[in-house]
Amino acid sequence: MRVQLYLIGVDGCWSARWSIALEADKVYWGRKAEERRKVQGGRKFGGREREESIVMHVWRTPLPLSAAEEAAVRWSEENGGRELEERAALREFVKAAQVAGGIEAGGEMNVDKGNGRTERVVFGERGAGQNGKNIGFVEEECVRAVAARLYGRAALLSEAQELLAAGPPACQAVAAGGWSALAPALQWAALRGLVRLRCAVAPQQPTASPLGRLLLPAPMRRGRPWRRRCLRCGSGEARMNRTACAACGSSACAYCEACLTMGRSRECGLLIHGGGEAGLADAQGAAMSGAAPGLAASRAHRMHAPAAFAARWGLSPAQQAAAEAALSYVLPRLGGVRHSSSTNQNAPSRWAPARSITHHSASQPTICASLNQQAALSTADIPDTQPITSSHTRDTESSRPSSAPSVSQFLIWAVTGAGKTEMVFPLIEAALSFGGRALIATPRRDVVLELDPRLRRAFPGAAVVTLYGGSEQRWEDGDITIATTHQLFRFHERFDLVIIDELDAFPYHGDPQLHYAAAKAGVPGGAVILLSATPPRAMQKSVRKGQIGCARVPVRFHRHPLPVPQQIRMPRVAELLAKHKLPRLLLARLTSSLARGAQCFVFVQQIRHTEPLAQLLRTALPGIPIGATSSKDAERPQHVLAFRNREFRVLVTTTILERGVTVPFSDVFILDADGKLFDEASLVQMAGRAGRSKDDPNGRVYFFASTSNQSQRRAIAQIKSMNREAKKNGYLLPQ
Ligand SMILES: [Zn+2]
Ligand SMILES: [Zn+2]
């Protein structure tokens, strides 16, 4: 889309912005000026002579959104925070618009020439700058309804339309009215600081190295093209594609291919971030009238010890201890969260991308702090917008209870089969009792579907929303949201408690977009709980350094120790297949497991080994039904089901079944355990398939390999250390 770029000056304090509905801005600034005129009552303001109150220079030609954004940021970078004389401000404005808009500046800049390109509007003289009919004005009630509906969302324009269309009547009317109703409503909400209108793929100032800054003077740096960054998923220039675009007229309009499956995020498209203090108040009101107990009343819960929340869920001693530790982290963050501002000053870590990148835009409704400090100017009718300038950050820590720990996230490191879902119930209960919202993000859709009924049963009074690709609850608001990880792209600072399940698993692991999305889904200063049986080493290091809080659950829910893998020498699978011969030791162990009635998982590295190995096993173990599956297997669900139902006694598989599949009474055979596709985490996960049920807690696990490598040794050490810890803490059942 194209938008209107303008410069607004209040008492020599200028800022550059853009608008999707300029008439709304004109009414807004006209009213601002009117208030000032009334308050001043004709006397000169601030002891200085002012010819007029508020002046606007509009760039006549609508610019592609990203060009307008870039011009506004360029202008602020070079002039923001200084008091400027009008001609100087305008001269810089023309320059910024020309550079960003790709208009050849050429020769000496001429203000008069610039004036021809801009329209000057003066507000504050009686009736001046007003269009009389209030075109562009949107009723307060409507603005607030729209803002409340968008609260905590990160929505592309089309998504915002769907969201509003599925909302209360006031929002439906806006959505039904098309662009001419939607644009002013969104623009008003933005002017009021209730939502933020962003460029979905935003121009980023090139960051010059200190040396570059020395060698390249500012005017020359100015000429360098700005890179693009997707504000929805955080992807940079490397993930941008460019196409000719009818919407903005550009021949190379960038869009983000990284989050394309969630709709096209492009540089001339809007990304709407719902938020702001007033939006928060509305959302809070909604939460209080809903199922969750009232916020004020629930303040008393802060007096409760973590144990009080953890008590009623029937947890095992190890689960209870971990839940209490997590609650000590969560509770202080819920208490102060309603007062925290939108700027997170926690040191960013690898797991929490800096939020500050989302808070610097010059397109925000920014008026100079000097204006805001004139308390007499703020009225109940049109409150001042928040003074969020690039240099202005508020201290979030001071607004939170001093007991809030300094770690930004908390890891629950629970062994496979520990019953982690039960452990997060008390955390969710705590969040709801503070009137907060909770999110559980998990990589797999089947886990989402499985959690849904369990949470509904556990929290009958709460609204539970389940989100995945194609979910029918797509635009519903809930107290508890369960979502697949990609759905996180659609949220912005919404949840007080964010729980991320299996953070080390595909697709989450190694995907910076999902880390970015997870970090921005929670409110700043809120609680982030990470769940994993096998946290990555970098995270384990952060735990040791005290950067991330952590509770270990070293024992399974049935309170038996984890089966410790046995290492057995064996040639590589490729060799066995070439020779059509299986080693005696492997067959002996398999026969023994089958004899005791166990189901046998046989893990291999390569997809191409699964079926040939199954064939070889069928020959060697006549009469035993043996199946094979992999990510390439079209009938995988049926094959897994057949294995679960004991129609197959042996299943040859790749790491595709390393987690998530629980088959009672099973033993685990890992072949080529020294292969490079099986790392420590993967080995621990595969080993975790054995001994899951309380009727057969002592399953068997074998590492078959030609060599013993570090991954195997570390996996075994990790399992043994968990068992030792469980024993030391008295978590194991007496033998
Ligand atoms: Zn993206
Ligand atoms: Zn475009």
UniProtKB/TrEMBL annotation:
- InterPro entries reported in the protein's UniProt record: DEAD/DEAH_box_helicase_dom (IPR011545), Helicase_ATP-bd (IPR014001), Helicase_C-like (IPR001650), P-loop_NTPase (IPR027417)
Q: Has the keyword Nucleotide-binding been applied to this entry?
A: yes
Q: Which GO terms describe its molecular function?
A: 3'-5' DNA helicase activity; ATP binding; DNA binding
Q: Which residues form the Helicase C-terminal domain?
A: 581-735
Region (Disordered), start-end ranges:
338-358, 380-404
Chain ranges passing through the membrane: none
Q: Which domain of life is it from?
A: Bacteria
Q: Could you list the residue ranges forming a coiled coil in this record?
A: none
Q: Which GO terms of type biological process are on file? A: DNA recombination; DNA replication initiation; double-strand break repair
Q: Name the keywords, alphabetized.
A: ATP-binding, DNA-binding, Nucleotide-binding
Task: Tell me which Pfam families the record gives.
Answer: DEAD (PF00270), Helicase_C (PF00271)
Q: Where is the composition biased (Polar residues)?
A: 339-348
Q: Which residues form the Helicase ATP-binding domain?
A: 401-553
SUPFAM superfamilies per the record?
A: P-loop containing nucleoside triphosphate hydrolases
**This protein's name:** Competence protein ComFA
Q: What is the protein's species of origin? A: Paenibacillus cellulosilyticus
